[in-house]
Amino acid sequence: MTQVHETSLVDAKAQLDDSVTVGPYCVVGANVTLGANVTLISHAVVEGRTTVGGDTAIYPFASIGHRPQDLKYHGEPSTLVIGCDNTIREHVTMNPGTEGGGMVTKVGNGCLFMMSSHVAHDCQLGDGIVMANNATLAGHVEVGDYAVLGGLCAVHQFVRIGHHAMIGGMSGVEGDVIPYGSVMGNRATLSGLNIVGLKRRGFSREDIHDLRTAYRLLFAQEGTLSERVDDVAEMFKNSDPVMEIVSFIRGDSSRAVIQPEIEHAA
Fold it and tell me: Which residues are catalytic?
């Protein structure tokens, strides 16, 4: 049977799996769906047209599914869809989508959202993502699988962050971050590949070697980026990780790809 603490307010129209636990002083709205083994620790609020997947834990003072922080939002019936096995820590905020962004904010599976991290309207997040304390995403941001966003970083609207990328703490990210890339600084520049993350995820030495070589070629000084991308695509057409970077750079985006800082001669 669903366990709901006597101090919590759960709307009669909300859909709660029989295995859900709602701790003290929580609020659950009418259009909320909570999957199997979801736990609201205490003082958590889940509102709006929000679906939370199984085995997800939501910690005190998280605000999930409230009205987007977008002045263009006019009450359209947009949604927030959160996958399974996520950990949403204290003071985290997640907003539903808007008419201008496809009407849905989506979070994948197995993610960790540390204290006070923020997922804005119309963001699209993959699986295994880590957002450290106070990391923030503006609207319409796309984040690939297993990306790590360091504490206090801020990501500009419409930015794309590729799979396995690493965003350094306190970085201001105004452009797209290539898959496997590592950026840091204010404003952030590309500082190399996320080698530590690649090793932790079990990438082979051959894949890492190919990525290192492709990285040097892609961000060399000679020629245009488009020409270098074509050269790398031809040279590494049998390397899936490298071709993922190629496809990312060639992809449609309103933001420029972040590149390494150019060193000027003294």
Answer: 121-122, 139
